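Friendly challenge for the regulars: who can give me the structure tokens for this chain first? No prize, just bragging rights.
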Amino acid sequence: MIAKGNWDIAEKQLLMETNPKNEKVQRRILYNLALVKEGQGQITEAIEFAEQSALLGDKMANEYLKILRRREAQLGL
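First reply, four minutes later:
Bragging rights claimed.
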């Protein structure tokens, strides 16, 4: 759903997986929620999810955080 831009449906699907037992899955869910929140125009929430994913060791989330923070600064948030 993310690839197709169906942000609301993607968010609902991801939130259904609230307590995955596998940390890798948890990192990926948080990262994908960051993508969804950005797609929905909610940069602050996107940063929060990306930070959570990065704290769990997701390297892609670290890089994505840099992009999100630049966008946040450009928007003056």
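The two ends are 27 Å apart (CA to CA). Residues 23-39 form the longest helix (17 residues). Your move, everyone else.
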